[in-house]
Amino acid sequence: MSEKLKKILTIALFLVIIVGLALLLYFLFFKKAEPVAVVEPETGEKITVRLPATKESWENMTISERLQQGLPALEWPSEQVTEIIEPVQTIMPEIDDVANGSRTWITPISDDPAKGATLAADGERNIYYNSETGQFLSVDNVGNKKLLTDQVFYNVEKVDWAPTKDKAIIEYPDGFKVMYDFETDTQYTLPKNWEEFDWNSSGTQIVFKSMSDYPENTWLAIAQADGSRPQPIEHMGENADKVVVSWSPNSQVVAFSSTGEARGVWEQEILLIGQNQENYKSLIVDGRDFEPKWSPQGDKIVYSVYSSETGYRPQLYLVNAQGDQIGQNRKSLRLATWAHKCTFNKNGTVIYCAVPKELPEGAGLVLELAEDSRDDFYKIDVTTGMVSFLAEDAMGGYDVEEIYLSDDETYLYFTDVNTEQLRYIRLK
């Protein structure tokens, strides 16, 4: 081999060695390790895998061993890759279809505003005034509707149904009032100065306040359902605001009056007024703003009053209200709500009440303080006075305005203040 050829081979070998060393240095010190792979499971949940080594074991490895295991060659990562993340199982809270003392589904019947909603005469359907269309309708639990009359009544402010549900007193914002008979499609105009109506149990007569600018002409009176044959019962004078019109189902009492003897700052004597100057026993109540509701038999009332002891919040009481038993067996139900948020069952053995979750101090004095309150529902045994929690709305709750039961006590119906929509809770 010539000297020239040897020199060429030596130079070539040297270049090969230099290139090899350069590549080795590149792989050892400059090329970054492949990142740890992210595995996408079939469920779509993103799972990242932990490095197959601890920092301590990595420090004891050679650079070559680290590269073989796919680990960083020169620097342990500052943020360690997280462990495998197991999918979090979402547990839905249990919601009852039937009220049983916990969260319960409340079912809307229709999206109509249902002013003056009440149970129809058949004990199953509901009747109400739709303030958007001006129509009176009946509706069943699945939303099937029927017109009660073809006549349209625009801008009705208040509806007072007769217990027979075939008649109603309809009031307008300007003071105009009519009694409408849905059986005969007949309308009767009532005097504008007649206010605060209630019906006898047969729907044949009404009781009301006959108001005047002059106290000597202010009377509690009764009349026939069409407004004919008015008859004064008691002269109210300047005490009209102390009289609560409320015709008892047994027809004995037509109103209450808080004009009894003074008995201290909060205790009041409530007089029961009949049609014929009867001398009934009175009720003694521990508070102001007396608001009553009769049992279907007329033998008991549930009422609300407020006092300083209750933080000026309304408090419910139950008491006998018939004959010699008037005022007997009074029970404090220890529920802060108003009597109009309560309803008796058909037999008068159970009361169902909507009770605000939270009621600010002074809500009995200033009703606006209770605006936007949310109600829970309670059940009261009339015989024992025992109160049990019935249900809370699964979706947050409503401020109940009207409340009543189906005759078979399967459904508890109500409308709320804000939407006036009709809803129900299943009781069985």
- Main sheet makeup: 5 strands, mixed
CATH evolutionary superfamily of the largest domain = YVTN repeat-like/Quinoprotein amine dehydrogenase
* Whole-angstrom Rg: 39 Å
CATH class of the largest domain: Mainly Beta
Structural class: mainly beta
**Number of discrete helical segments:** 3
Account of the protein in words:
There is one protein chain. By secondary structure, the protein is mainly beta. It folds into two domains: 28-91, no CATH class; 102-426, Methylamine Dehydrogenase, Chain H (7 Propeller). Helices cover 9% and strands 35% of the residues. The protein is built from three helices and 31 strands. The protein has a five-stranded mixed β-sheet with strand order 3-28-27-26-25, with no helix packed on it. A four-stranded antiparallel β-sheet has the order 4-31-30-29, with no helix packed on it. Strands 5-6-7-8 form a four-stranded antiparallel β-sheet, with no helix packed on it. The longest helix has 28 residues, at 3-30. The protein starts with a helix and ends with a strand. The model is unreliable at 32-50 and 80-84 (pLDDT under 50).
